[in-house]
Each structure stands twice: as structure tokens, then as C-alpha cells.
Amino acid sequence: MSTTARPRVSARLSAIAESATLAVDAKAKALKAQGRPVIGFGAGEPDFATPDYIVEAAVAAARNPVNHRYSPAQGLPVLREAVAAKTLRDAGYAVDPADVLVTNGGKQAVFQAFAAVIDPGDEVLLPAPYWTTYPEAIRLAGGVPVEVFAGADQEYLVTVEQLEEARTDRTKALLVCSPSNPTGAVYSPESLAAIGRWALEHGIWVLTDEIYEHLVYDDTPSAAILALVPELADTTVVMNGVAKTYAMTGWRVGWMTGPRDVIKAATNLQSHLTSNVCNVAQRAALAAVTGDLSAVETMRTAFDRRRRTMVDMLRAIDGVTVPTPKGAFYAYPSVEGVLGREIRGSRPETSSELAALILDAVEVAVVPGEAFGPSGYLRLSYALSDDDLVEGVSRIQQLLS
User: Fold this and answer.
1) What is the pTM of this model?
2) Which of 218, 220, 208, 265 is nearest to 93 (CA)?
């Protein structure tokens, strides 16, 4: 009889890294709870309350016994119809409600999309910098993330030529996120269409995360790849949700749309994994996607103001380069010009070391570039109050100057 000890935790889950963005946010909140004046730029979360009309819809739903029972795992039919209508209104292409799956937040849509499309050994082209969850979702599906890096000199936008260089006979899919988390980069319609045509030519699936679709600035168009290249419909999965647009991060309602066989497979998975999304949250999401966008515009205007303030302040720091973010609510400065410099007796060589120094020295929490790809960068969310934003970046300015 073998006495060899078996691992207590599976290799599959042991290999998953903690979400760096959530870890930074948790640390900032823990320090605040201790009474320290920490300012956190880590969380990708609007600081606004969910609009009242959405909250009221949830209150009414909670009182209705019909919402106290199981509902279809694929989502409430009325919400799936509303998502289809919203897609046509906002993205400019048609979706059948039967091809919509309502998920527990956009993050679950990402995991299920990869699970439905990727087999062990399949390669997924992953433009970097990338959201920290993407590579973990790819690996959990058995896939192999293949990073395709575009730095500040390219405004964090990969080219068709780079994608082609990374393509192999094992390439199954391409991840697209525009507007981007973590960089705020937005692909032009021309660039996005070129990428879509390239994927179509080579039979590559496109998994596109469009959760920041309404948060764009400077008259930048937020284009949907399926509106530009409709021939991709049979090999494209779209992930979206209400979290960012409507300040509903805690409500946990997202969705995925795609070919019917893929949506059916993902629905089967969800039926075993979580069953239906909370009915009250679904009713709130219904109010969100069927309402007008006036509350969204109010938030977008505030984000735009904060974006410009943050970029101007960061650019005033010697050694920091900041491409102008055109969407989402993040700035992604390159700090390569700061690394190696002596700062209060320390000489940080990586962005991770620099982020730790910033937190320790001036009590400002930022996320290092290692969470999103190569070292040498920081992500700062400007989804926080104007006063906190100015105070936090001022502390960084004083430290690095």
C-alpha cells in the first residue's frame, strides 16, 4: 500500500493566481479599516450608487413571489429579449433571444465562453496588457494563453501583423477587449474590422468582451466587431453585463451571446454550476437595459473629467509615460523611466516593487503591471471621487519627484 501523500488541493486550482486587482483593493480596504488614510486606485468599480429606478425595480421584484422560485438557467425570457433589443440598439447587430445566456456577472460569462469553445492544448491569442482573469480562464479550460504584447508606443493596441506572427496551427481563438481593461485603449473601427477579417480568414474564434462599450471619450466610436464583420457571427462569442455601465458591480448580472450550440453548451454548464442568476438582480438588470442612458451619461461625464485630471497629473512626473486612455476608467502609465531610480532609500527594479513602495511610503494602492502582462506599468482606476483622485496622485507625484 502506497504511503505517498496526495496533494490536498487539486493541481488545476492550485495553479490559479489570486486576482491581483481584488487583492490590492482588499488590502487597501483593510488598511482603511485600521484607520490609515489609504487611497485605493485598484478596484475597477464605479463609485456611484446604482441609479434609483433600477433599485426600485429590484425592491418591487423582491416583493413579488414569482421571483422567490427557480427560473430558467438560461435567464428570464424577458431579460434575454431585452438584451437582444439592447444589442441591436447599442451595438448595431441583431441577436436572437434564444442565443443569449444570462450569467452571474460578466466574469462568469468569460469563464463559460472559454469552457464552451476551448479544448486542452488549444492556443488563445491574448493581447497584452490584459485583464488579469483572462489567462486563468483560458488555463482552466485547458487552453494555452499566447500573449501578444503592445506597449505604450503602440498605445497598447496590437496589430494584425503581430497576431499573424503569433498564430500557429494550434490557434483556436482570439480574445478582444475594447474598450480595454486595464489600459483604456479603444480599437478604431478600421483596426477592429481588419482584425475581424483576419480571424475570419483563418477560421479563428473571436471572444469579445464589450462590458465597457458605453464608457468612451473624446468622440471615440465604440465599435462592435460583429457589426463590422457580420460574417463572424458563427465563430464569435460576446461577453457583456450591467456592472460598469450602470454602477452595478455587486448585482452580478452579465450575459454572453453567440452561436446557438455554444450557448446551449454554456447553459448546460451553468445549469449544474449555479442554476439561474438571482431573479431580483435579473429584474434590476431588466430595468437597466430597457431604460434610457441619461444616468450613464452623467457617470461618463464625471469619468471623463477625472480621466483628464489623472492623465495630466501623471504626465507631470519625470519618467512616466501615459498614452491617453480613450475608454473604460483606467490609466495605464509606463513607469519604466522610474524603475532603478533611488526613491526614499529604495531602488525598485520592477513595477511590483514600485507599487509596494508607493503603498508603504505614501499609502496609495495601485496595481502593478505584472498583474496584466510585462512589468514596467501601473494601473490606476479613476472611478473614485475627484478629491481622492487628486490627493492620491499628488502623493505619488511627491514620492517620485
Assistant:
1) 0.94
2) 208
